[in-house]
Amino acid sequence: MKKIVNPWIKLEKDGYNCFGCAPNNPYGLKMEFYEDGDDIVSFWTPTENYQGWLHTLHGGIQSLLIDEIAGWLVARKLQTLGMTTSLEVKFKNPITTGTCTQLEIRARLKEIRHNFAFISAQIRCDGRLCSSGELTYFCFSKEKAAADFHFTACHTVDEEG
């Protein structure tokens, strides 16, 4: 498993403050990402600050975890950016904010058709499938990603030296 370098860190002074992945957003999830073969993986600990019902992780936060990892999959595997056009989440088992100490969020590219990436994602706690998502992502051209979003590449730590 290889840690992915956050390519937007250098843009913090310009306003980078993503709720999902900015490390210095005081309210954010501060997600970090890893490449594991064909998958992109993140590990995250649910706390009481993100609950919906008593001691249960809010479904919107679960959806955000799935959406965020899909974006990172596009950045790393396709070396561009895009936007979610469709997100379907199925909640299979509750995620408790007190006893589930670490979630594993995992995404995989299923197919690419034209400018659309079709992605599957899952959230697991202690090996148990809690939520799954199917996403469609519209992928920007590499030129648009660079010009509009300052994105040039997404590397792993070992690639950057």
UniProtKB/TrEMBL annotation:
Output the Gene Ontology terms for molecular function. thiolester hydrolase activity
The record's section on CDD domains has: PaaI_thioesterase
What InterPro entries does the annotation carry? HotDog_dom_sf (IPR029069), PTE-AB_protein (IPR052061), Thioestr_dom (IPR006683)
> In this protein, which residues make up the domain named Thioesterase?
56-127
Q: What is this protein called?
A: Thioesterase
